[in-house]
Specification:
By secondary structure, this protein is α/β, with parallel strands linked by helices. The chain contains 14 helices and 13 strands. The protein is globular, with a radius of gyration of 21 Å.
Length: about 375
């Protein structure tokens, strides 16, 4: 069996759910993969021209021999009626390549982000099994006409797909209004990445405790909460690692270190130096459906997690090693509880066994009607 994967992120980005899924697919079915790179699905904004490119390849390596990458030419006018149809002429070669790829043998199409191209391919190859994997509430990342169009394309995919998966319980509840058979497939961790010595070193230079975050600093990042944390713990270090698309509202306190993005292996090594793993996301519609992968990675390393009460994290208050902050005033108490927490190797091992990508996708596939085909 072969796989056509419409990705929401480039192959060269930090390894995420899409990368892990295609790895799982190839391991399970020994099939080739056609990875379709994302293209602009909204109208351009001024900040797009000011945003720096990462300029580095954070994927595990160059694409493996069993995976081929297709880059899609598109004018950023998809949400505009009629004008967006111009892209169909630019896609003719892409559609032709997909046709050649899927017609040679059995195939599966997985769409991890709605787009007109994905909808066109699903319609053209109606006999090919299709999964829509709702990784995020994509319309909420857009505004105006772009949000309307994204919602419309998602609604079309929900009806046309043979199976629908989602990464959070909030998404499941929303999608159930259209598809009662939606399958809840939470995020997970790479067991190989966190295997070995599960202990964390913590305590940075001069005995300072290290409170760390690894990930993109985007519109969902709660800068005021982080600044309050720095104020409450001036003698400790707050280490933020990742591309900063949204700068801090004020000059950074001396105990906040803003470091560049790194590859996944280096990121895991950085996490091992933390005393507490942070997930400081704003609580709003944008994060209501988010299940952060860094939660699994932190816990897979035995790190206590301090998070704001957003999305899927808001449902984990009773989970071992998870400490939720509801406002700036409770930060000192929450952090002190987290720093007193001590995990056991047995519990960390059990967590990794229950929350790894292979097990997650195996269970999702077996629960899908496509597995019977």
């Amino acid at each position: 069996m072969r796989l056509v994967y419409f990705s929401p992120v480039p192959w060269g980005s930090f390894a995420q759910r899409p990368h892990k899924f295609v790895d799982w697919f190839h391991c399970r079915f020994a099939g080739r993969v056609l990875w379709v790179e994302p293209y602009p699905g909204r109208l351009p904004r001024i900040e797009d021209f000011r945003r720096p490119s990462l300029g580095r390849d954070f994927s595990s390596s160059a694409s493996p021999p069993w995976l081929r990458i297709i880059r899609v030419k598109a004018i950023p006018l998809e949400p505009v009626p009629l004008l967006g149809e111009v892209n169909r002429w630019l896609w003719r070669d892409v559609v032709s390549q997909i046709a050649t790829f899927v017609e040679r043998e059995g195939a599966l199409i997985v769409i991890a982000k709605p787009s007109k191209l994905a909808a066109e391919v699903v319609g053209k190859f109606a006999g090919v099994g299709t999964v829509y994997d709702a990784m995020d509430d994509f319309p909420m990342f857009y505004s105006g006409l772009s949000r309307w169009m994204m919602g419309r394309m998602e609604a079309e995919l929900l009806v046309r797909s043979n199976a629908v998966w989602c990464s959070s319980q909030a998404l499941r509840e929303r999608i159930r209004a259209v598809r009662s058979d939606v399958v809840f497939v939470p995020n997970a961790l790479d067991r190989d990445m966190v295997s070995g010595d599960s202990s964390v070193s913590g305590s940075g230079s001069n005995g300072k405790r290290v409170f760390g975050y690894v990930g993109t600093i985007g519109a969902w990042f709660d800068w005021p909460w982080v600044m309050a944390l720095a104020h409450h713990f001036p003698r400790d270090e707050i280490r933020l690692i990742g591309p900063a698309h949204v700068p801090p509202p004020n000059s950074l306190p001396r105990n906040i270190r803003l470091l560049p993005a790194c590859d996944q292996k280096a990121a895991i090594d950085e996490m091992r130096a933390f005393d507490v793993g942070l997930i400081p996301f704003s609580v709003n519609e944008l994060t209501a459906s988010v299940d952060p992968i860094k939660y699994y990675e932190y816990r897979g390393l035995g790190l206590p997690v301090v998070s704001t009460s957003f999305g899927e994290m808001s449902l984990r208050a009773a989970e071992p090693g998870v400490f939720l902050s509801h406002d700036h005033g409770d930060i000192p108490g929450v952090m002190e509880k987290a720093m007193r927490y001590c995990d056991t190797e047995k519990h960390v091992s059990a967590f990794c066994e229950s929350n790894n990508w292979q097990r997650r996708f195996d269970e999702a596939w077996e629960s899908s009607a496509l597995s019977q085909g």
